[in-house]
Write a structure and sequence with these properties.
293 residues; Rossmann fold; 8 strands; alpha/beta; 8-stranded mixed beta sheet; 54% helix
């Protein structure tokens, strides 16, 4: 696929979303300076890269890779500080009960301002020849986040918020600026959710660039002749048949995604008790090879 300036990584919970976001950021940073923006409160992707960003400062992993932490509430507070530059007044507004009522009356305002921040980051990345990778929420929540601009347009049919919402929608529809990678494992439930998410992204939100990473794909160990020769060793044959069954699931997932028009990349099963920096680096090598123009 075309590599957009900002890549939004989402998927069903448990499919390795944060690990893939961290590996993708590391892979892209070998080509261009890259920022990983972690939307996860636990900062899972940042932790895998050994980074500890704060709300106020980025954390640098190396010369070409940095990590920032983003949250809807932080973006709302920053927006208020921009439009009310007098610090004492903006702080009083943020603490006031009336302001709480206003934000409650505009559902999605915090999420919308987070989307606007992503649009600005992608624009800056295009000017500076950089990439941005987003460790986004799981797919259901991610779709709600990306659909917020449409809701803001209905709530504010004119004025500044309406203009910002139009800008966000144009950003999501621009394949050079925005793209989505769906993480999926070769199980039926994860596969169905990935296809439903891709359909919603394309048809409801008009996102042009959608691809998938099939995670935890086991390597093939035995060919058909070798499988036949293992009949004399029942325990070994059982293991070999299970591995072949897992490979069939991967092939089936790849075919199903292809029929849905979704480009795929496979990442191997790591067979490790836990994921860390070394495993992320290995996955980054795989992704770097897959992303070669």
């Amino acid at each position: 696929m075309t590599t957009p300036r900002l890549i939004f990584v989402t998927g069903k919970g448990g499919t390795g979303k944060s690990t893939i976001a961290a590996a993708l950021a590391q892979a892209l940073s070998r080509r261009r300076p890259t920022t990983l923006a972690d939307l996860d409160r636990r900062l899972s992707a940042a932790t895998l890269l050994g980074a500890a960003p704060s709300a106020d400062a980025a954390a640098r992993v190396n010369a070409t890779l940095e990590v920032v932490a983003l949250s809807p509430r932080t973006e709302l507070e920053a927006f208020i500080r921009r439009i009310v530059p007098v610090g004492a007044i903006s702080r009083r507004m943020l603490r006031s009960r009336t302001f709480g009522y206003v934000t409650a009356a505009l559902p999605g305002l915090e999420a919308f301002l987070l989307l606007e921040r992503l649009r600005i980051m992608a624009g800056d990345a295009a000017l500076e020849d950089r990439y941005v990778v987003i460790d986004a929420p799981a797919s259901g929540t991610a779709l709600e986040l990306l659909a917020v601009a449409g809701g803001i347009k209905r709530l504010a049919p004119a004025g500044s918020l309406n203009r910002l919402a139009h800008g966000v929608e144009s950003f999501l529809e621009d394949p050079h600026q925005f793209g989505v990678i769906l993480t999926v494992t070769p199980e039926d439930l994860a596969l169905r959710e990935a296809i439903e998410t891709a359909t919603a992204l394309r048809e409801r939100l008009r996102v042009a660039t959608v691809a998938a990473v099939i995670n935890r794909a086991p390597e093939q160990l035995f060919d058909r002749e070798e499988l036949g020769a293992l009949h004399a060793l029942p325990a070994h044959a059982k293991f070999a048949r299970r591995r072949e069954s897992e490979r069939r699931l991967v092939r089936s997932a790849r075919s199903t995604l292809a029929r849905a028009g979704i480009d795929t990349v496979e990442l191997p099963m790591m067979y490790r008790p836990a994921m860390g920096g070394g495993e992320v680096a290995q996955l980054a090598v795989e992704l770097a090879a897959a992303l070669q123009p």
